[in-house]
Amino acid sequence: MEVDLSGIQKGAGDGDGGVRHGDALLAFADAVILGPDTALTESRSRLLNLLGTEGLVDAAATVASFNSVVRLADSTGIPIEAHKQEIAAGLEQSFGPREAWYGR
Amino acid sequence: MNANEPTVAIRPGLAAAIERAWTHVSGPGTWFTGIDRLAIAEEVRAAKPCPLCQARKAAISPYAVAGDHVECGKLPAPLIEVVHRVTTDSGRLTESWYRSILDAGISDAQYVEAIGVIAIIIGLDTLDRALGQGTKALPAPQSGMPSRVRPAGAAKTIAWVPTLEPADVSADDPDPYPFGDPVNIHRALSLVPAEVRAFFDLDFELYLPQAAIRDFDHDMRAIDHAQIELLAGRTSYLNDCFY
Hints:
By secondary structure, chain A is mostly helical. Chain A has helices at residues 6-10, 22-34, 37-76, 82-95.
């Protein structure tokens, strides 16, 4: 399966990236985390039409999970495992230097 | 609309985990009473509109912005700082900031328990927000005293905070890893084992159980692995999380 991971960095508006309904999912994540509420209402409705109630719930739950678990890592200084460091190094080939990933 | 009544049908496993999470947050913990823990929850909700937190979030360095938090008045100042910073700008926390919290009188175990409560509340509130259900009213606190049991084998090894290796879990400790061999993120709260259990009890229903994360032959949810990981990646990116 070929997927385009650039949506993780760029957000919605650039196609699905090889993930079914990827653009709608990205828009939803952005709206939940960043708002505004009008964008969230719109993206929720879009996702409900595309995925149904169960899909919407699981999408919402996934965003909720990662919006919370990041606090554990960030606030305790727990390090990333060595094998994930290797994967991250590979991602730098796609996204460029890690230092620039969060420039916004 | 009553924000405490779900308006979207939630799968039974998740609904049950949500209820357990609220019971956990409102009850006595290891170092805090139920009243304290709900005060932490209340402070999580006060953090987002806090002008100091907003100014710090917008600043190149949050450490360059001084001021006082707009807060609920129920917790000591250092703990309010923890709740507000972790809630609004966790991606820029540093070990020296963490040490300043300890120097201000919050113990490492209190800190870890607070992180556990903060993370659960953020998970629950984010789910409600995402589903358009409104913010749930906080429950009443449950009576009872904190257990005040510190795992004897906890030590400062891989993280800023002491953690508990599986081999060092004693018979007197609640097992923080009932789900099996932990990865590093599972160790994060292990100085307070009850918080590890409670957080991941909820998180396995929000996300996936540990064994299912890399089971690409099966989809446990109504969205597939690729969809889940796209959401996970984007949400982590928006939170400046490298992990």
